[in-house]
Every structure is written in structure tokens, then in C-alpha cells.
Amino acid sequence: MPLATPAQYAELLDAARAGGYAIPAINVSSSSTLNAAVLGFVTAGSDGIVQVSRGGGDFAAGPSKDRPLGVRALADYAAAVAEQVPILVVPHGDPCPPDDLDSFLRPLLAESRARRQRGGQPLLLSQMFDGSSLPLDQNLAIAAPLLAQCAAADVILEVEIGAVGGEEDGIRGDESNGRLYSTPEEALADVDALGSGERGRYLLSATFGNVHGHYQPGKVALRPSILGEIQQAVTARHGERAAFDFVFHGGSGSTPEEIAEAVSYGVVKMNLDSDAQYAYTRAVADHMFVNYAGVVRADCGIGDKRAYDPRTWGRSAEQTMAARVVEACHQLGSAGRSLTGHAPRPPRA
Question: What is the total count of domains within the chain?
Fold first, then answer.
């Protein structure tokens, strides 16, 4: 079926919130990794989000290094792939810091607006502005007009308060002064600046110790209960309608218990990048080690075309990454809950 429409995306988020589960959002940077993500969604019977960061757009753009071009290419490829699968696929633009708004987020939003005006779908159904490097008042001052512009294009805005640690796309999060943990006061300021849906729908990445990347046990101290405290403070002041749709950033390496607790407080979207990257690359490494004589023309040999053909090791990589996506769907509770009614594929005998 075609890519999800804006109305279907809203319905998908509402269903996740009401059903107590979250939608997996998988970072992709090529047609192959996008295929892997979609294969995982289909296998699990889950709707899903494919998202492209600035670095992913840069990689997909090839020699041009035109990030928005790379995102457009992958979003259009996703639309072609989605025509042939029985689940909903949602394209999303991943974090854009303030310095790149004019070179990344705004051009992509302009493309969505132009497509909408022609009667088509937005290029992306949601985009993230990451203003976490700024003081909160400056962050929200930029986010407010962006929200209005997104709403006019039927695009959902994603924003962040606090700061996710680790590094993503070459940007290291500010882990100082407790910024890994958002506060109810910051969340209340967010509602004051952006409203609670009446000015346009948005998703909120409120931090609770999240860190990009994958670390040894004990390195990351997640406190999902912070999300519960934020929801309680906001609904006490503004009513249940103001409850947030949360996003869980830095989901790789999290325990099933941490994921379940975060979802119980209103997480409707969880990002998965590092674990998916590792699954993809590990399969490639396994293939190269096992088939070394075939992929390397050593000792005047000719190698084995069946071993070094990118379709061979690429297919293995896609299948391994897809398996990690299936695992994420089960952890988040989205498996078997596609709005299309698609059931999970039975395991192979």
C-alpha cells in the first residue's frame, strides 16, 4: 500500500498511545538499510517509521553531498517500496540542529509544502528540530514558528528538551549540569510555548538519561519515571488533553524493562540506530571472514563471484538487521498491531 498519509500517521500515534505500545523508528541511510527496516516491519506485522538524518542524507546523496537530495531520494524510494508491502511506512526527517535549519530542515519542509499544494503527500510526515544545544527559551522560540509551518504542511514536528548524551551525526550532546534529565518545569514551559495540540501536533523528546550509541552496562543510567513525573505535572495544570506523545531517543542497548516502563508513561515512538547498524555490519563481517578466500583475490586466485557479489552479503546484512527490527517491534509491543490488519509472518521452518 502507499506510504502512510498524514491522517493515518496521526491515527497510528493515537492507536499506540491508547494501546500502550510504541512505533519503532529505524534510521536508514541507503536503499539496502531501508529494505531491511521494511522487511522487519512486515515480518513483525508492525507499522513503522523510517528516518533519515543529515548524515544519512549526505551518504545517500552520493557525490553531490546534497543532504536534502539524499533525503528526498530515500523518501521517494520508500514510497515505491511501500506500494508493495501490507503495512504502513512513515518517512521522518531526523535531528536538525539550529545551525542547519536553513540547509536541511527548511528545504525539506518546503518540499513537503509544495507537494501538498499540488495535492500530493508531504515528502516527510514528521521532522525533528533539535534545539537542545540552546537555552530552553531560545529552543522554544525557534520551535514555535516551526510548529506553525509544519502544521500548515500536514507535517508533525518533533522537538527536544534536555539533551541526549553521546554522539549522533557528529554532534555530541551536552551531558553537563544534569541536562540528561528533563524537568517538569521545562515541560510546562514547552506547553506554554507550543500549546498542547491546538497549534499543531508535535512529539516531544524529553530526556531521562538517554545516550546515543551503545555502551557497557552501568554506563547509562535511565530513569523513565521522569516521564511519568512530567506527564503528572502537565496534566495537573492543563488537563489530560495536554499529555505528551513522547519519543525515546538513544534506544539502542536499553533493557526490555526500561523500554516497557518508558512506553507506560506515553512513549509512542522509539528510535533505533546503533543496534541496527551493528546487526547490518556484523552480518557483512561474518560473511567476509567465512568466505575470505572467495571475496579476496589472494595468491593469484580469482575469487568467487558468488561470494563477493554485493547482493550476496547485502542480502545477509538486510536479513540480520531486519531480525533486530523484529525484536524491537516485540519489545515495543507494536508487533501484530498494524492498522492494516497485517499479521506477522510465521517463522521459517
Answer: 1
